[in-house]
Design a protein that fits this description.
By secondary structure, this protein is an all-alpha fold. The chain contains six helices and no strands.
């Protein structure tokens, strides 16, 4: 675990110029959440500054929900397995085999 502190003036300035600037400020080598989480964090921070600190929000992140939503975008698990069977060249074993290059 790591604790990260930010200057109030820097955060306020970044949140007033836009979400992308705030995300650039908040992310660093010790704190680099995935985009889905970072968007929620930035929205919550911007909401707090917009309400002059009168608003607070508990953020709860569920990794399972993120994985399930990404599966839904690609299709069901069975469909993903079928895609792998259709293109065996994409399997790891095939990619790492030592074969001379084709001429």
């Amino acid at each position: 675990m790591c604790q990260q502190s930010y200057g109030a003036k820097e955060v306020k300035s970044a949140s007033s110029t836009g979400k992308d600037d705030l995300i650039l400020l908040l992310r660093n080598q010790h704190f680099y959440p995935i985009g889905t989480y970072m968007n929620k964090i930035a929205d919550a921070v911007m909401g707090m500054y917009a309400s002059k600190g009168e608003q607070h929000e508990d953020l709860i992140f569920d990794g399972k929900a993120v994985l399930v939503s990404s599966l839904d975008e690609k299709g069901t698990v069975a469909e993903i397995k079928d895609e792998k069977r259709k293109n065996p060249a994409d399997t790891l074993d095939t990619l790492i085999e030592d074969k001379p290059p084709k001429k």
